[in-house]
Amino acid sequence: MKSLMELCRDFEYEVLCGSMDKTYTEFVTDNRKLAKGCVYVCIKGANFDGHTCVGQAVAAGAALIVVERDRSGLECPDDTKDTTIIKVESTRAAMAYISCAHYDYPAKELVTIGITGTKGKTTTTYLIRSILEQAGRKVGLIGTIETIIGEEHKPAANTTPDSPALQKMLRQIADCGCDTVVMEVSSQGLMLHRTLGINFDIGIFTNIEPDHIGPNEHTDFEQYLACKAMLFKQCKTGIVNADDKHIDSILRDSTCDVIKYGFKEGLDYSAKNVKFVGEGSHLGMEFDVCGRANYPVRINMPGRFSVYNGLCAVAVCDVLGIDAVTVQSVLPKGHVKGRIEPVKVSDDFTLLIDYAHNAMALESLLTTLREYNPARLICLFGCGGNRSRDRRFEMGEVSGRLADFTVITSDNPRYEDPMDIIADIETGIRHTTGKYIKIPDRKDAIRYCIRNGKKGDIIVLAGKGHEDYQEIKGVKHPMDERVLIAEILAEK
Q: 467 and 440, same structural domain?
């Protein structure tokens, strides 16, 4: 076991009492897990402040307590016995560095690829992983949907886990024989120092739009932007979407080598001769990669944003030395559960499942699908309960304006009456001339769409995406739209 000095060697601290010349038994941030000889980091959260448990940690016999306050500001006994207390500027930052040391710096044993941006993170991580795996690498993944460690797939609780959980995952990924990890890096994760201590080999920026702004998230867009930009002070090479209007702000204080991709001329990787293609129930894009690499590719996901995701994956894999043939063979097969996911139900119309659950995402999705000139664009969606009512009005307005027909249904009502949520969505649609129907039960609503689908229609089931449950009054009931569709198709 390491000494306290070894554990804390990567950050500055002031010793308030005790000695650093000793070892420890375990590392905890949860006061319910305090034990003799442990290291306890006091984290101030939205609802609980770990600094209130300093006395409890001393009584438990903690070897080290990490705080942000002077001793006079702590509820601490005069006699700290064998406990050492150190003060740091940020306990979250210290926790990240301690996590790296505790797990023996697993990121140094891996090629690390971190992706930040408002949209496209999840899809791009899967595309990159698929190509690298085909090229013979063994790749772990950490993201919004799941964590993949070897053959094990675990549902994700956070896009970017807190630093102790993240470093534990990275250690498991390294120990199971992986040589690479690709992970989503959220603005919240950057703001809370969850990835501190990792010097990413490649950092990626997809795009940025106003999102995650509000209580317990970001105070305003400027802070959101600044947090996204932090990744490019924490990576060796930055691969960035040069078409985004905020790119100069993202790169203003960057310390990495920069590689740019997009639709513009003269970039390191540009998409040219872009075509919308559709065959049966599959919608996709074809384009030529120009610049450092030059070859045509196809991706079986619709829209210009899919071109950005595919082009980004091409750039990353080219930087890592993956050949064109491998990229060209894998990209058309790439898909992500719940991200514009096609489900074959008929040769006459297209059915898609997507995670779009706010107005911005829904507008982007429906605008993209319009470019395929469907006979009708049908949008089924609901809104989550115990969330902003404004989201319901806005999504109703977007669907009413952009879809030919809207099916309003239930999403995760949580502790609200589904009909109250549906009424709010209806209020938004009534500000448009869009036609709609209300079907509260989601399976009934999907059945209605399938049985009334016509030749040339595009039907999108929005909001649930990869989720396989419906939350009602605190209980998550099993509900996977793919299962519902299969059950409906099996009916006489």
A: yes
What is the CA angle 247-250-253, rounded to 5? 125
* pLDDT of the residue at 235: 98
Q: Give residues with Cβ within 8 angstroms of 133, minimum separation 6.
A: 139
Residue 150 amino acid letter: G
Distances in Å between the Cα of 389 and the Cα atoms of 395, 416, 428, 439, 463 are 10, 11, 10, 19, 15
Tokens 């740091």, located at residue: 88
Q: Are residues 150 and 217 in the same domain?
A: yes
Q: Identify the pLDDT of residue 72.
A: 86
Q: What does the pLDDT look like over 429-439, one tens digit per residue?
A: 999 999 999 99
**Phi, psi of 254, deg, nearest 5:** -70, 155
Q: Which long-range contacts (CB under 8 A, 24 or more apart) does 54-62 make?
A: 54/85, 56/31, 57/31, 57/83, 58/83, 60/34, 60/35, 60/36, 61/35, 61/36, 61/37, 62/34, 62/35, 62/36, 62/37, 62/38
pLDDT digits (tens, 9 = 90+) for 288-313: 999 999 999 999 999 999 999 999 99
Report whether 3 contacts 21 (CB < 8 A).
yes
Cβ neighbours of 222 (radius 10 Å): 11
DSSP state of 389: H
Distance in Å from the first CA to the final CA of the chain? 65
Structural domain range at position 367: 341-490
Q: How far apart are CA 323 and CA 305, in angstroms?
A: 23
Pairwise CA distance, residues 368 & 312, whole Å:
19
pLDDT < 50 stretches in the chain: 213
Which domain CATH number covers 485? 3.90.190.20
What pLDDT was estimated at residue 214? Answer: 52
CA 261, 263, 269, 274 dihedral sign is: positive
425: tokens are: 């969505």
The verdict on 155 and 241 lying in the same domain is yes
Amino acid, single-letter form, for residue 227: C
C-alpha gyration radius of the chain? 25
∠ CA 465-473-158 to the nearest 5 degrees? 45
Same domain, 170 and 224: yes
Do 257 and 157 lie in one domain? The reply is yes
DSSP-assigned letters across all residues of 39-81? EEE--B-SS-BGGGGHHHHHHHT-SEEEESS-GGGS---S--T
pLDDT at 217: 59
**β-pair type (152-155, 146-149):** antiparallel
Residue type at position 94:
A
